[in-house]
Amino acid sequence: MRYRMTALAAAVAMPFAVPAGATDLEVTHWWTSGGEAAAVAELAKAFDATGNKWVDGAVAGGGNTARPIMISRITGGDPMGATQFNHGRQTEELIQAGLLRDLTDLANKEGWANLVQPKSLLDSCTVDGKIYCAPVNIHSWEWLWLSNKAFEDAGVPVPKNWDEFVAAAPALEKAGKIPLAIGGQPWQSGGALRVLMVAIGGPDVYQKVYGDKDAEVAAGPEVAKVFAAADNARKMAAKSNVQDWNQATNLVITGQAGGQIMGDWAQGEFQVAGQVAGKDYTCLPGLGMHEVISTGGDAFYFPKLADEGKSKAQEALASALLDPKTQVAFNLKKGSLPIRGDIDLGAANDCMKKGLAILAKGGTIPSGEQLMSQDSLNQINDLFVEFFNTPSMTPEAAQKRFAEIVGTAD
Questions:
Q1: What is the pLDDT of residues 66-81, one digit of tens each?
Q2: Are residues 174 and 236 in the same domain?
Q3: Contact status, residue 367 vs residue 210, Cβ threshold 8 Å
Q4: Do 13 and 129 fall within a single domain?
Q5: Environment class of residue 21 by beta-carbon count within 10 Å: exposed (0-12), middle (13-18) or buried (19+)?
Q6: Per-residue DSSP letters for 325-362?
Q7: 368-397: burial string, b at 16+ Cβ within 10 Å, e else
């Protein structure tokens, strides 16, 4: 896939046509941090340009809090006009129940199959040959974000990989810094495990564990190395007493913490804070160990509605989400990568350029949400919250329980 690094594509997007009978459309999502709010405002602006009106339905608390609320509304007969979910298997039951709208005709008309890259993103929207969602970005979990100031204060070089980061932890602690910032939400520690699985175990081990659900590999020596790394992470994060992910990111932004394992959505927080990639902070894809990124991210699904005007507005929104101008404006503020391979990202910062280069080389893996059901991922998340909060739990005991979850995962 090839992303052009010139400065023009936003200008060539055609203006949206204003439909007759324009209407309000409630759109639910869980983007509530400063960087996320700035990004979602670009989607609202693009939809409002169609003559319709974006009615914001943000649900605080992140995906694990918002997702059950959104599902409950759809199944309970109070559907919104559109809702965010992650790429993957989160909507399987809603589709099977016939509650979500089929977008195949629109997708075929606009040639989504030729625009959306990598192909796996549209595959995640497709069930029994029908397309049920409009992907908007590629978000990858596999990043270590480092505060250049924290390492300068500690008198040690900014690390180039996970091993150097672990080695620098004592100097950070001596300087009064928290080596690793991790919030208390379960998905954060569960996500950190997946990142360590890729970085320490390698992409093949990750695929065998999360994709093939191979309990033998999960219980084996390669994954034992991952749990040893997780033990280091637990020790480095012992004084990271924050809850939300963006609070942990703020510890890095303000130089109170050395680093954070977090997806590339953290870039939006650095941007809002006025920090510059490569100058104020450093990013290491794959923790500097394996330069790969996952092709997770966000997509919008559209519940079936009886109102014909709102149904037309749904189509206008789906079309606007994939418009090249929207893709540029939204992803530059979100810190994510666009789902189109034919647009300009000349304004991309150093970290986004690293992600684009990896994407162009095909250095991608499926996200956890694409490989496992949400129930299985939640079990792993809960285990890792317990592991991080229970110093007496050995890595060996945690790995044994992890392998049991993998063996029964779907």
A1: 999 999 999 999 999 9
A2: yes
A3: no
A4: yes
A5: exposed
A6: HHHHHHHHHH--B-SBSSSB-TT--HHHHHHHHHHHTT
A7: bbbbbebebbebbbebbbebbeeeebebee
Sequence-distant (6+) residues with CB within 8 A of 75 are 94, 97, 99
* Pairing of the two strands 24-29 and 133-135: unpaired
Q: Residue 174 domain-assigned?
A: yes
Question: Are both 355 and 251 inside the same structural domain?
Answer: no
Q: Is the pTM of this model over 0.70?
A: yes
Give me the domain span that covers residue 243. Answer: 143-294+372-408
pLDDT at 409: 95
Side chain identity, residue 90: Q
Q: Specify whether 246 is located in the same domain as 122.
A: no
Residue 20 — pLDDT band, cuts 50, 70, 90? low
Is the residue at 300 inside a domain? yes
State how beta strands 293-294 and 364-365 pair. parallel
The total of structural domains in the chain comes to 2
Please provide the DSSP assignment of 114-159 as one string: HHBSSHHHHHHHEETTEE-EEE--BB---EEEEEHHHHHHHTSPPP
- In angstroms, the Cα distances linking 63 to 60, 66, 70, 381, 386 are 9, 5, 10, 13, 20
Residue 367 inside a domain? The answer is: no
Is 70 in contact with 80 (CB distance < 8 Å)?
Answer: yes
Residues 348 and 385 in one domain: no
- pLDDT per residue over 372-383, tens digit each? 988 999 999 999
Q: For residue 365, what are the β-bridge partners?
A: 294
The CATH number of the domain holding residue 41 is 3.40.190.10
